[in-house]
Design goal:
The complex is a heterotrimer. By secondary structure, chain A is α+β, with helices and mostly antiparallel strands. Chain A has helices at 24-31, 91-99, 108-121, 127-133, 145-164, and strands spanning 2-9, 12-19, 50-53, 56-59, 72-74. Chain A has two domains: 2-79, Beta-grasp domain (Ubiquitin-like (UB roll)); 91-162, DNA polymerase, domain 1 (Orthogonal Bundle). Chain A is 35% helix and 16% strand. Chain B is α+β, with helices and mostly antiparallel strands. Among the domains of chain B are: 58-127 and 168-223, 2-Layer Sandwich (Uridine Diphospho-n-acetylenolpyruvylglucosamine Reductase, domain 3), CATH 3.30.465.10; 229-333, Enolase-like, domain 1, CATH 3.30.390. In chain B, strand 2 (27-30), helix 2 and strand 3 (49-52) form a beta-alpha-beta unit. Classes of the chains: A alpha+beta, B alpha+beta, C alpha+beta. Chains A and C meet through helix 2, helix 3, helix 4 and helix 5 of A and helix 2, helix 18 and strand 28 of C.
Chain lengths: 168, 334, 831
């Protein structure tokens, strides 16, 4: 059975007919064609599907779509422009590119959402704080090292940006 | 992708509406869903109606209470009152919880990974389904197995005999809450009732609590520990994140001003279908300095723990770890 | 957003300096080498100066991946697309008596049902062992073996349709233990190749080089050990996915397109043609972005055949996406190995003889198993001098998902055992384990005892680097109880000299096209599965043609558009595709140089292409934008395009049966030091740091090379400590059921578990590699496991000869040792 749901995603309002038993991830990927968020494990074990629900990193593959109604959802597509100008990648997205933090790139969207949430709260995270923040996201390619480098690089840029008062 | 079955989702914003919905036998409550959603994807639950609780304000809040659940200021406080739908992240980060019951904050902060703690709730953690290597599998897998006692079958593949399900209690917060003497406020369309957590669990892996299917956990109340109480929670798992416990140990010790044990409560869990409250500690520990009884109290904990092959990690090792982690938790307190 | 601008770094000597001779001659001499031979710089050992190569640059797909724009197979949605599902066997071993699909076919929303009878032709990635079918027709051989497939409007309908298919099975006894499979002939998992053969055996390899028995007898010390390497699986985060599209009519006639998360589009192309009995020319295979492979996507799988056949039957596009559980059934991961190793050495620690036996648990099908059986021995005799060597490997079938190539195919298991053997030898002789390895170093430009031609070899530098970086000398046998360090080395191939199916054609091809705008398009058939091969060819094009990196487009992995590359396996891509790209670029460059030279009335060698400009090397004030240079060339030669290819040397291998397996144009070398902290009370091993030194020849982009080294060390670390692809037996539920087919229960390390990984790049400059490069994606995995095992020994004095080194196993080993010491202590007391 489908229901007409109103969802706020990346600052935009979407109305969509969604099967009642869909997860948020299925809705994003297969109803709204927002395919940036990935499905890796089916059931909340890997973190590739991580999106923000009201700013908190959440596993969209085990979140009923109805739980997103009335909330602000942000996906990897919506990191572009956040803390930067419209259309400009988030410093974290750029840092991932510079550092080679994405190899196959499949866990990357989820990792970015976890890392970006950390940087919203703390632009001077220690390596252990970064490790903690990413401890629900499995990466099979990198050994995490380049990911830490990228998060640290982005944090530095956000600090500089904060000092200059940009993007807030 | 693993699919969910077809169901209707309800998201009431009032407790009474949720309770009405739960009167339908085909309805099931969902809070964070971090346990129920994977279980539904595995075909372990197939309710027609799923009742989301997260929009209900009455299930929220962490505050001081007067001993009967009414909010108070700090001066009159006799307990912590934690709404069932508070997330594990919120509990772990709560200033009140960290200050008064650090082992609970520790336990909540060690559940799974960060995202799951952002969704999962303390009420849900209390109601976490038991886990077993023969149960937490897809429908295809379980069908190939021939099913098991807990779901769709009539054999226990762990014990191979008997009609008792031995799936493991795997939640992190209940052991800590048990040592803290918490009580659970339940509510259903029939009215409220309060159950001490000590009476909450039953030795049945299929449904391991006294909660009736139409009942909701409304809140958990934790008496404020006295100033001499030290608490600890230790979780053994192979990875430092994501994993359920292979073994968990919670201890609360009330130390007198002389440094001697007035009372000690210890819970060992993740071995059987309910957390095990270690018996007989009074005789061993009471009246002695903590450091003198470390080995002595580890012994009954070891003796009373009998892990099974319900989790795919060597039960002999899991059992041997009991005294090791008991000693470590106690040393940390001293 | 800008990439780093390539800078001209080549110094031009001042014209009036009498000491330097004729500058024009020198310059021409200097730049003529790479430009004039039109081939890869074969035979050169010195470092070629470069502008782009060697820099830490962004990847061509980096931002697409970090913004969610990169398209993976499951991101594809075609109009009218159906969803397919595959029915799998619940039995580990059974005969199929009948399959009734009629009820499923009649269900509303079901558009096609297919069984093996419609695709009966058997196939196999190795042409000599075609023992698989797209869907089983008469026998299933593991829980999860594919039996039928459906396409329906949505996944839920497809799942319901699967339940409506009735399959009648006659259950057969399953064989799970490889020792039993080797011994038993009453139960045969496959029909014997010939009467009297055991159908449970895929391959037996027995090879002997030198006088093993004599050398062993003459050895001063013989180290013997039994080792067990546990099976593990790749677990790429992206589950396998495929989409099929069937088009009929028009001038093209009929045409099949398959998008797949494969790492071998070319082999998939061939096997689709074979199994579907279609002309290969009517099939197009497209590989979108792939979310990790590690060897787990390097052969065709049931889903690719099924989406094709279902699309053909239904006339609609069909997608199949594996569940995570199905990924565990597809497997093709690390073979479990039972090993019996002997090592003879003299008093100084010099190896005299090595005698190894291995039993490989292959699972239900051959996969790459024939090669695995050879690799289990062939890749061991370097980087150490082994004067006499014998190995005897048997790969058997068992009723479990098929094993195949996982990162470091077939040689990770023997390397584990052998490097632990070396550690034991060092202990026996009271030698430093690094010193022992140095003493046995084989050197450069040598043939191993089994005739592998080793050219560049930076293994000694690798040892030096990890020794220094780890503080080895202050730590080994000096750290307090519970802490320890261990070392291990290894060697790996940069591709194989012989392709999977015999042919004389190139292994890699590149086509380039330049546009009047100055843009260069590179058409590459290689599979970028995250390792960065698309970026690598872009760097080469920018280097060779002097265009800014942002002016290079790379179009990849589409059998209609791109030249053949054999795929992302055996660490072949950088080496082979890189050389092919250099070849194509230099052909193009020669045209551009000639055209510009004519325009300037100068010799072509004087025309340099760099930094987006064509310039006169002797008079750098004379320049023109590269687009202008391209336009001159187009005016002179017509539309500009060039192809390049690389083929491996075919005359470099051992002259014996199997002597071609393991032959590679170049070998990479690695050394690791791992530092661990072992909790003796619990058995938990905390790996603090792994120092990884890897001789990759030359790092074309050091950031990407480090990423490969770190990822490899990580993957080895995970196998060492926690990963197990294991199965239930009859006493535990049901024989052949996967123990843990999820990312919760099959544990791969999280960020909190993973050690610090320190990458140390060693550049030996290979004579045949592109700019001297060799592989970096698989070699650096090998030493992780033995280095950790040896570190555990250094920490707590127990030998972990059996994997994984999980807390229960380490704890038990420590307990056993205590008991033994206790007994010895009592015995002493009784005396």
């Amino acid at each position: 059975m489908k229901e007409l749901l109103t969802l706020r995603i990346n600052g935009q309002t979407h109305e969509a007919a969604v099967p009642s038993h869909f997860t948020l991830l299925e809705t994003l990927r297969y109803v709204l064609q927002l395919t940036g968020s990935k499905q890796g494990c089916d059931k909340g074990d890997c973190g590739a599907c991580t999106v923000w629900l009201d700013g908190r990193p959440t596993l969209s593959c085990i979140t009923p779509v109805h739980e997103a109604v009335g909330a602000e959802v942000r996906t990897v597509e919506g990191l572009v422009g956040l803390r930067t100008g419209s259309g400009t990648p988030h410093p974290l997205q750029d840092a991932f590119d510079v550092c080679g933090a994405a190899q196959c790139g499949f866990c990357t969207p989820g990792i970015l959402m976890s890392a970006a949430a950390l940087l919203e709260e703390n632009t001077s995270p220690s390596r252990d704080e970064i490790r903690d923040a990413l401890s629900g996201n499995l990466c099979r390619c990198t050994g995490y090292t380049k990911i830490y480098d990228a998060v640290e690089m982005a944090a530095e840029r956000l600090r500089e940006q904060g000092e200059r008062g940009v993007g807030r | 992708m693993l699919r969910l079955h077809d169901y209707r989702y309800h998201r009431p914003d009032r407790l009474s509406a949720a309770l009405d919905l739960l009167e339908d036998e085909g309805a099931i409550p969902i809070a964070g869903g971090t346990d129920l959603m994977p279980n539904m994807k595995h075909g372990l639950f197939t309710p027609h109606h799923v009742v989301g609780l997260k929009g209900i304000g009455e299930l929220r809040g962490i505050s001081y209470g007067d001993g009967e659940g009414n909010a108070t200021g700090e001066d009159e406080a006799r307990e912590l009152v934690i709404g069932a739908c508070e997330t594990l992240s919120a509990v772990a980060a709560s200033r009140l919880v960290r200050r008064h019951t650090p082992s609970l904050a520790e336990a909540a902060g060690q559940v799974a990974g960060p995202q799951i703690r952002n969704s999962g709730t303390i009420g849900g953690n209390l109601c976490l389904d038991t886990r077993c290597t023969y149960y937490n599998q897809s429908h295809f897998w379980r069908k190939a197995l021939g099913y098991c006692l807990k779901k769709d079958g009539d054999v226990c593949h762990v014990t191979k005999v008997g009609k008792k399900c031995v799936a493991a209690h795997s939640a992190d917060t209940p052991p800590a809450l048990l040592t803290l003497g918490a009580v659970v406020d339940l509510v259903s369309a029939d009215g409220p009732r309060t159950v001490p957590l000590a009476d909450w669990f039953v030795a049945d892996g299929i449904w391991n609590s006294v909660r009736r299917r139409n009942e909701l956990v409304r809140r958990i109340r934790v008496p404020l520990p006295g100033s001499g109480v030290r608490t600890a929670y230790r979780k053994v798992r192979q990875r430092k994140s994501i994993d359920f416990p292979l073994l968990s140990i919670a201890i609360a010790t009330d130390l007198g001003e002389d440094g001697r044990v007035r009372e000690m409560k210890m819970v060992v869990s993740a071995l059987g279908s309910r957390p095990r409250v270690v018996a007989g500690l009074d005789k061993i520990a009471t009246g002695h300095p903590l450091s003198d009884v470390t080995d002595a109290v580890a012994e009954p904990a070891h003796r009373q723990s009998r892990p099974l092959e319900n989790i795919i990690v060597d039960p002999e090792w899991r059992r041997a770890m009991v005294p090791v982690y008991v000693r470590r938790a106690l040393r940390e307190m001293g | 957003m800008s990439t780093r601008t390539p800078r001209r770094t080549r110094a031009v000597p001042p014209r009036d300096d009498p000491e330097v001779g004729d500058p024009a001659e020198e310059l021409e001499e200097h730049i003529s080498h790479p430009d004039q031979d039109g081939q890869a710089p074969h035979g050169r050992r010195e470092r070629v100066e470069t502008n782009v190569i060697g820099q830490r640059l962004r990847k061509t797909d980096g931002l697409a991946k970090s913004t969610g724009r990169a398209r993976y197979t499951d991101d594809i949605s075609l109009p009218g697309m159906l969803h397919g599902k595959i029915l799998r066997s619940p039995h580990p071993h059974a005969r199929i008596l009948s399959i009734d699909t009629s009820a499923a076919e009649q269900m509303a929303g079901v558009h096609a049902v297919v069984t093996g009878a419609e695709m009966p032709r058997s196939y196999g990635i190795i042409p000599w062992t075609p023992d698989e079918q797209a869907l089983a027709t008469d026998r299933v051989r593991y829980v999860g073996d594919a039996v039928a497939a459906v396409a329906a409007d949505d996944e839920d309908t497809a799942n319901r349709a699967l339940e409506a298919i009735r399959v009648e099975y006659e259950e057969l006894e399953p064989l799970l233990d490889p020792r039993e499979a080797e011994r038993r002939t009453d139960v045969q998992i496959h029909d014997p190749k010939k009467p009297g053969y055991n159908g449970n055996i895929t391959k037996v390899v027995k090879l002997e080089f030198g006088e093993v028995d004599g050398e062993m007898d003459a050895a001063d010390v013989v180290v013997e050990g039994d080792y067990f390497f546990e099976g593990s699986t790749h677990t790429p985060i992206e589950p396998h996915c495929a989409v099929g599209l069937w088009e009929e009519g028009g001038i093209a006639g009929t045409r099949l397109t398959v998008w797949s998360s494969t790492q071998v589009p070319h082999y998939l192309h061939r096997e689709l043609a074979r199994v579907l009995e279609l002309e290969a020319a009517r099939i197009r295979v497209i590989q979108p972005a792939v979310g990790g492979g590690f060897g787990g996507k390097s052969e065709p799988f049931d889903l690719e055949f099924c989406v094709a056949k279902l699309a053909m039957k239904s006339g609609r596009p069909v997608k199949i996406l594996y569940t995570r559980e199905e990924v565990f059934y597809a497997h093709r991961g690390r073979h479990p190995f039972l090993m019996k190793y002997r090592l003879g050495a003299d008093r100084e620690g010099r190896i005299r003889a090595v005698d190894n036996r291995a039993l490989l648990d292959g699972g239900a099908y051959a996969s790459f198993g024939l090669v695995t059986a050879y690799y289990s021995g062939q890749l061991l005799p370097a980087p150490y001098e082994i004067p006499a060597y014998r190995f005897h490997s048997t790969r058997v079938y068992t009723n479990k998902p098929a094993c195949g190539p996982k990162r470091g195919h077939g040689s990770v298991q023997p390397r584990f055992a052998f490097e632990v053997q070396l550690d034991k030898l060092a202990e026996r002789l009271d030698l430093d384990p690094i010193e022992l390895r140095r003493r046995n170093f084989m050197g450069e430009d040598r043939r191993t005892i089994n005739e592998l031609r080793v050219t560049s070899n930076g293994f000694l530098q690798c040892l030096d680097a990890v020794e220094r970086a780890s503080g080895w000398k202050e730590k080994h046998r000096r750290l307090p109880f519970g802490r320890g360090v261990g070392v291990a080395g290894s060697c790996y191939i940069s591709g194989t000299n012989y392709p999977i199916y015999p042919n004389e054609m190139p292994q890699s091809g590149i086509q380039i096209q330049v546009d009047r705008s100055g843009r260069v398009t590179v058409f590459s058939g290689a599979s970028d599965i995250g390792q960065g091969s698309d970026s690598m060819v872009a760097y080469i094009a920018a280097e060779e043609l002097g265009v800014p990196l942002e002016s290079v487009r790379v179009l990849t992995s589409d059998t209609d558009l791109t030249p053949v590359d054999l795929g992302a396996y055996s660490s072949r891509v950088t080496f082979m595709l890189g050389n092919a790209c250099i070849d194509a670029c230099r052909k193009m460059k020669a045209l551009v140089q000639q055209a510009v030279a004519e325009h300037w009335d100068a010799k072509p060698q004087r025309v340099l292409l760099a930094g987006g400009q064509a310039m006169d090397g002797l008079d750098t004030s004379r320049q023109m934008p590269i687009a202008g240079a391209f336009n001159l060339a187009e005016a002179k030669y017509g539309t500009l395009g060039a192809t390049g290819s690389y083929n491996t040397p075919k005359d470099v291998h051992g002259e014996y049966r199997g002597g071609t397996i393991g032959a590679s144009p170049a070998y990479s070398f690695t050394a690791h030091v791992a530092e661990v902290e072992v909790d003796p009370e619990t058995g938990f091993v905390d790996v603090k740091t792994i120092w990884v030194a890897h001789d990759c020849g030359r790092a074309l982009n050091p950031a990407i090379v480090e990423g490969q080294m770190e990822g490899s060390a990580y993957m080895g670390f995970g196998e060492a400590l926690m990963e197990q692809q294991i199965f239930k037996d009859a006493d535990h539920g049901r024989a052949g059921l996967h123990d843990a087919p999820s990312l919760l229960d099959y544990r791969i390390p999280t960020s909190l578990d993973t050690p610090e990984l320190a990458s140390l790049i060693i550049e030996s400059i290979d004579p045949e590699g592109p700019y001297g490069a060799k592989e970096a994606g698989e070699g650096p995995l090998h030493p992780s496991i033995p280095a950790i095992a040896n570190a555990i020994y250094d920490a707590v004095g127990v030998r972990m000869d059996s994997m994984p080194f999980s807390p229960p196993r380490v704890w038990k080993a420590i307990q056993a040792q205590k008991e033994m010491e206790g007994r010895e202590g009592k015995a002493v007391a009784a005396d």
